[in-house]
Design a protein that fits this description.
43% of the residues lie in helices and 14% in strands. It is of the alpha/beta class. Helix 2 runs antiparallel to helix 10 and helix 5 packs across helix 6. The radius of gyration is 28 Å and the shape is elongated.
Length: 406
């Protein structure tokens, strides 16, 4: 066991008797005595002086709580979300989401958790996102998705912070290393350890091993949609050489030289390649009747701005509902983003006028932020990316990217 904690030694020994899965995972954690409150930083659990004041069942529950923080890589996942949200990130909201999920798991597994404690069902009810049962909530929500949902509404976020304080919540999780893709060796190692631990718990029929199949937070994290968007836009806006009849190719020049020396036949002309003589254009169609929330819109704006700055592309915003009502050029030199623009809301949706206006700009790609709740016009002569707030049936053309929660 990787442990140098005298405070937690007894609780760790007892954990092996009551929960084989958590006992296996605890072997991969580093346990230390600390000076402050008990907390997790990466794979290190520091046990503060207050740990000694708890009874043995509560000590075991607190050890189990932090072992799950480590095994589920909450420190690194928190850092990844902080990188995505920037200044809008609130560690207390991620902490509420992670603690709520872990405490609900431990209670279902028969562990005692120090009271008062935040549970997932109570957190969802307070946030206006109730679930029919604890099992259903654990099947639906992982820490990343729940934290994103808690960040989406500033008034709700403030209310939840105040509620958390009444439940004795305090941030017990340090910031790790961001891992957007979830495919690092560290992530793979922990997934393997979790699988082994859950199998041991399942065979023993005790502890969290009985619950492994229902926990969404145990699933490998998906690639954030911003990363996918970044790749799609970068590929669409990258300048590619094109044939130019104004300059010969190097191969043709070499063949002409050889024909002149040998007296042979001159080869047919072969055009060379030239870089684009105009900046690539990105057209963003914003359907103001759709339900894309402000948080998703802000993240989208940040990605579009980053791509525009790196590629030097022109970005044209077209606001529309049943017809186009606003157009604005968003150049890298004077970027204003998509938030804060005077856009009318409500009304129906019709894509025809948007596609007509976009075609006149000859874009490298048209990105349409919409819910796809309208008849589509004929397929255009340029690529289309549908950025939607929830999963939808595949349209007849274009790629679909889900950028928000319903």
């Amino acid at each position: 066991m990787s442990s140098h904690s005298t405070r937690a030694a007894r609780a760790l020994a007892h954990l092996g008797e009551v929960d084989p899965a958590l006992a296996v995972l605890a072997l991969w954690c580093r346990h230390r005595d600390g000076a402050g409150a008990t907390r997790t930083d990466g794979d290190v659990i520091s046990y503060g002086p207050g740990f000694d004041t708890l009874g043995l069942p509560e000590q075991v529950g607190l050890v189990a709580h932090h072992v799950l923080h480590v095994a589920l890589r909450h420190s690194d996942r928190q850092a990844g979300l902080a990188e995505r949200l920037g200044e809008g990130f609130d560690a207390s909201l991620f902490g509420l989401a992670a603690d709520g999920i872990i405490n609900e798991v431990l209670i279902l597994a028969g562990h005692a958790v120090p009271r008062p404690a935040v549970t997932l069902c109570e957190l969802l009810a307070e946030a206006g996102l109730p679930a029919p049962s604890a099992v259903a909530a654990l099947e639906r929500w992982d820490a990343d998705r729940l934290a994103m949902a808690l960040h989406a509404d500033s008034k709700r976020a403030e209310r939840l912070r105040e509620w958390g304080a009444t439940r004795g919540f305090a941030v017990d999780l340090g910031l790790g290393e961001p891992d957007e893709s979830g495919e690092t060796q560290k992530a793979a190692d922990w997934r393997n350890q979790i699988l082994r631990a859950m199998e041991a718990g399942r065979k023993a029929g005790a502890g969290i091993g009985r619950l492994g199949a229902i926990l969404a937070d145990l699933a490998p994290p998906s690639v954030p949609w911003e990363v996918v968007l970044r790749g799609l836009l970068a590929r669409a806006l990258t300048e590619r050489p094109h044939p130019s009849w104004r300059r010969p190719s190097g191969v043709w020049l070499a063949q002409m030289s050889h024909a002149a020396r040998s007296g042979g036949l001159e080869p047919a002309f072969q055009p060379g390649r030239a870089r684009m003589d105009s900046r690539p254009r990105l057209v963003v169609g914003l359907d103001t009747s759709s339900s894309i929330d402000a948080q998703a819109l802000g993240l989208f704006a940040a990605e579009a701005e980053g791509i525009a700055r790196r590629t030097g592309a022109e970005v044209h915003l077209i606001g529309f509902d049943e017809a186009v009502f606003a157009t604005q050029r968003l150049d890298p030199a004077g970027w204003q983003g998509l938030q804060g623009l005077a856009l009318r809301r409500g009304g129906g949706t019709d894509y025809a006028d948007l596609f007509d206006k976009a075609a006149k700009l000859a874009p490298a790609m048209l990105v349409v932020l919409s819910d796809l709740d309208a008849e589509l016009p004929p397929k255009p002569g340029f690529p289309v990316l549908w950025a939607v707030p929830r999963k939808v049936a595949a349209p007849p053309y274009g790629r679909v990217l889900v950028i928000g929660e319903a």
